[in-house]
Write a structure and sequence with these properties.
With 218 residues, the protein is of the alpha+beta class. The protein contains six helices and five strands. Helix 1 crosses helix 2.
Length: 218
């Protein structure tokens, strides 16, 4: 059963990104094809099979080309500035943009460190990612120095819970953020080799329990 569970999780790790990407492309294709289905027959006098798919591929390539050069980035930035000035739309766009940046753009430090917090109750530790200090108002009202921690769900780390934890209750780990995300997505199956403890690899390994050294050595 353990081996089957490992295979199932490994399969999900491979399939989920593919399925999400496929769904996004199908959604984009349906929009482009819907627009062209009325435009192409009007111009050419008949429907042209495959024009929607070709237009979708060209659109994705053009956006990629624009995003990869300085002139294109300026155009995208200008377009975003127009959206940010549009009521209602800007709220949705800015939120989705921030979430996308947090999980896609490697060059931005969306999460500063990997940590452990006692959640959902005392004595149970959940992996999380330090985001930022709490707002001053939060700390003024609670009279406590708080740290923002995002506790993701498995296997989809884009959903989860934002917790503001007292600074002294956050256990920092010497684990790269990328490895922390792999750990969450795989449900704990994929662990960095450097973080494994050989003496705990077997079934009958002794549980260190409470009072042991914290993962950050404190």
């Amino acid at each position: 059963m353990k081996r089957i569970r490992t295979y199932v999780i490994a399969g999900l790790i491979v399939l989920v990104p593919i399925i999400i990407t496929w769904k996004l492309l199908v959604w984009l294709f349906s929009i482009v094809d819907g627009i062209l289905s009325g435009f192409v027959p009007h111009v050419f006098g008949r429907a042209i099979p495959g024009v929607g798919l070709a237009a979708t591929v060209i659109l994705v390539l053009l956006v990629g080309v624009l995003a990869a050069n300085i002139f294109g980035r300026r155009m995208i930035h200008y377009g975003e500035s127009l959206i940010r000035r549009t009521p209602i739309v800007r709220s949705v766009y800015v939120t989705m943009k921030q979430i996308t940046d947090a999980f896609v753009r490697q060059e931005q430090a969306a999460f500063s460190r990997v940590c452990l917090v006692e959640y959902p109750r005392k004595g149970i530790f959940s992996p999380g990612f330090v985001t930022s200090p709490a707002l001053p108002e939060f700390e003024d009202k609670t009279k406590t120095r708080l740290i923002g921690v995002f506790v993701p769900t498995t296997p989809n780390p884009t959903s989860g819970f934002l917790l503001y934890v007292p600074a002294e209750d956050v256990i920092y780990l010497d684990l790269p953020v990328e490895d922390g995300l792999k750990l969450v997505i795989s449900g704990g199956v994929i662990t960095p080799p450097a973080a494994r403890r050989p003496e705990l690899a077997g079934e009958g390994a002794e549980n260190p329990g409470h009072g042991g050294e914290r993962p950050d050595g404190e």
